[in-house]
Design goal:
The chain is globular, with a radius of gyration of 18 Å. The chain starts with 12 loop residues before the first strand and ends in a 19-residue tail after the last helix. It has one domain (about 15-225): Undecaprenyl pyrophosphate synthetase. The protein is about 40% helix and about 15% strand. It has a six-stranded parallel sheet with strand order 3-4-2-1-5-6, sandwiched between helices. By secondary structure, it is α/β, with parallel strands linked by helices. The chain has seven helices and six strands. Bound molecules: farnesyl diphosphate. Farnesyl diphosphate binds near residues 21, 22, 43 and 62. Farnesyl diphosphate binds near residues 36 and 210.
């Protein structure tokens, strides 16, 4: 198994809220979309580092259900960026062994964006080194509701609906829950990201704006994670599963 620079075993799943693109651009008197473009470059860098560190799942928040309320210019800029990112980086990601999945509500995006998603997912479906889940038009509450809707549509009776069963309908059903949740940009919020899945994630917040997030920043987060004492509701020293207060 790969190790982080500190020698610790890496988290299996890292989730990131890539915040701060707009402020990065504002500081340079650039349009906000220029910050998002730099954000894509940061993401491409971090994907490589995650693969090198042996992280198996990376889930990033690229566009939330609430982001539609941003200025039209920024929304259309993000949609175009989604398509140009697939065109520019798909070959490289495919060669790196990255499998891309888009999680989110596909109903509201254009046919062109959907076609880019299909291309990214189908072109990398055979890869398994790193699973990159891009949350686009995603909201944690939407995810829980759509999972319940699917379960009901499958005819599940109330008593059959367990946490485990519902997890099987969530957008990240193919991945373990995130071990480490990172948010850049200095805000201390979950912002309707993976609400169901972060129940026991370790949270890490940094003031670093996303376009500046690099290998050293990720390693600092991994080193911090390695020092956490994860108990999952148990008491230290008690056998796993033993009742605890
Ligand atoms: C939050 O920063 C960031 C976003 C809403 C978009 C994140 C998107 C990317 C990094 C690009 C990835 C895109 C693709 C196509 C995979 P913000 O704009 O809220 O920053 P601010 O808080 O400084 O205003």
């Amino acid at each position: 198994m790969s190790k982080t620079p500190s020698g610790a075993v890496p988290p299996a799943h890292v989730a990131i809220v890539m915040d701060g693109n707009g402020r990065w651009a504002n500081k340079r008197f650039l349009p906000r979309v220029a910050g998002h473009k730099q954000g894509v470059d940061a993401l491409v860098r971090i994907v490589q580092v995650c693969a090198d560190r042996g992280i198996r799942h990376l889930t990033v928040f690229a566009f939330s259900s609430e982001n539609w309320r941003r200025p039209e210019e920024e929304v259309s800029g993000l949609m175009s960026l989604m398509m140009s990112t697939v065109a520019k980086h798909l070959g490289r990601l495919e060669a790196q062994g990255v499998r891309i999945r888009i999680i989110g509500d596909r109903a509201m995006v254009s046919d062109k964006v959907r076609a880019a998603w299909d291309e990214a997912e189908q072109g990398t479906a055979h890869n398994s080194r790193l699973n990159l889940n891009v949350a686009f038009n995603y909201g944690g509450r939407w995810d829980i509701v759509q999972a319940c809707q699917q379960a009901l549509a499958d005819g599940l009776r109330p008593e059959e609906l367990t946490e485990e069963r519902l997890s099987g309908y969530m957008a990240l059903r193919h991945a373990p829950d995130p071990d480490l949740f990172i948010r850049t940009g200095g805000e201390y919020r979950i912002s309707n990201f993976l609400l169901w899945q972060v129940a026991y994630s370790e949270l890490y917040f940094t003031d670093c704006l996303w376009p500046d997030f690099d290998e050293a920043q990720l390693d600092a987060a991994l080193a911090d994670f390695a020092r956490r004492d994860r108990r999952f509701g148990l008491v230290k020293g008690n056998p796993a599963g033993a009742p605890s207060a």
